[in-house]
Amino acid sequence: MACCPHVQWLRVRQDDTGFVLQYANRLHHITLTLPRPSMQYPSVIFFIGKNTKTKALRALYPQNEISNRRKFGIANICVDSTTENEEHPVLLAECCPNYTHIKPRGGTETCHDTSSHSVAWPDVDNGGAKCQELVDHIQTRLLSLFIDVLCLFAYDYGGLDAVAERLISWASIGIASTLPRAIRPRLLIVSNISGSDFDSEVLRFRLRVLSHSGFSESFSSLKVINVLITSRCSPPEHFSALGQVLNEEIRMQRVERVNTHTLFSMVHIAAFFDLALHQFAASPLGTFDFISSSREDFPVSPSFPHHLKSFMDVCAENRVPDQIAFEYIASVVIMDAFPPDMHSQCCSHQGIAAILT
After folding, report:
1. Angle, CA 248 vertex, CA 27 and CA 79 arms, to 5°
2. Which domain holds residue 147?
3. 313 and 236 inside one domain
4. I need a surface site. Which of 42, 67, 82, 205 has the fewest CB within 10 A?
5. pTM for this one?
6. Is 319 left (phi over 0), alpha (psi -120 to 50) or beta?
7. Tens-of-pLDDT digits for all 357 residues of the chain?
8. Which of 261, 286, 311 is the last residue of a domain?
């Protein structure tokens, strides 16, 4: 199917049986637009806000249309067109702070393929509050698995106190990833505080969120910057410092991903998201294991321990040196863990342990 111009990523609807999560296959569509998706390793920036967010997107990414599109559902996403030929393209995602629930409408959309996933979510009778609770879980236990930098605009939330409440709520829900904490989303808060109150307000904000026990599990860093918006039509220069900070946050997160062998290609990001989406719909409170999910179509044989024991017995009977036996076993494990098209940087103790167990 040809790529459509829409940027909708996820949407929640409600039918007679409960909530339904709709996926517009955006990541696969983005994969088709990239020249070398299996050799390009994107970074994902997620912007949450309203008017200030829109101004920032238009100033920082003027050649992209995501800030001009009508807002549907939980999130929208596109590739920054100025980076789509680079080894590390940037994916721009955005949403508003509060999700407005939309009930099903007649007709079907035919310009792109959309999959629907019934969510195992309890007690959906009381509409809005339950839907917002579900959206919070989607953001923390599904979308956050794929976000490198999370950028929140405090003015659009109503101030730092409102941002702190939302962050504490997300931290209380908890993240669903089994990957190292070093690659949790890097958190960037954009405030609009005039005068000499900035330092004291930011200190109070940091003390409040950092004191929550789950915060460090959900986010790998926290940075607050001030961008003063003095007019309705702020010039692009107002956001130049924000652009510099975003680029540095992306760079630092990429370093962490390289160090932890979790720098995924666009092809693998799209595939992992499909798997994570299916798991979230079936079990919203479940944990997503990237390594186990990558072997979903070719699980480790249950007879592997038996064969391993038999091999070791034969080696012992024939007095094969331990070093030779261990090297042979290791090579077999690694070959089994890396079928064609597997993520090439997952060769780690975790990966080998997943095969042995």
Report:
1. 20
2. 8-286
3. no
4. 82
5. 0.84
6. left
7. 445 667 889 988 887 778 899 998 999 999 999 999 999 999 999 999 998 999 999 999 988 877 665 556 789 999 999 999 999 999 999 998 876 544 444 444 555 678 999 998 876 555 555 788 899 999 999 999 999 999 999 999 999 999 999 999 999 999 999 999 999 999 999 999 887 889 999 999 999 999 999 999 999 999 999 987 765 666 667 899 999 999 999 999 999 999 998 999 999 999 999 999 999 999 999 999 988 887 777 777 788 888 888 888 898 988 889 888 888 888 877 777 666 666 555 444 444 444 444
8. 286
Rounded CA separation 146/148 (Å): 7
Residue 231, both tokens: 């007019």
Query: What is the count of structural domains for the chain?
Result: 2
Task: Identify whether residues 138 and 222 lie together within a single domain.
Answer: yes
* Residue of 275, 266, 341 lying closest to 78 (CA atoms): 266
Q: At what angle do helices 266-282 and 26-33 cross, to 10 degrees?
A: 170
Strand order in the sheet with 90-95: 115-118, 18-23, 8-15, 75-79, 90-95, 43-48, 149-153, 186-191, 221-226
Residue 103 amino acid letter: K
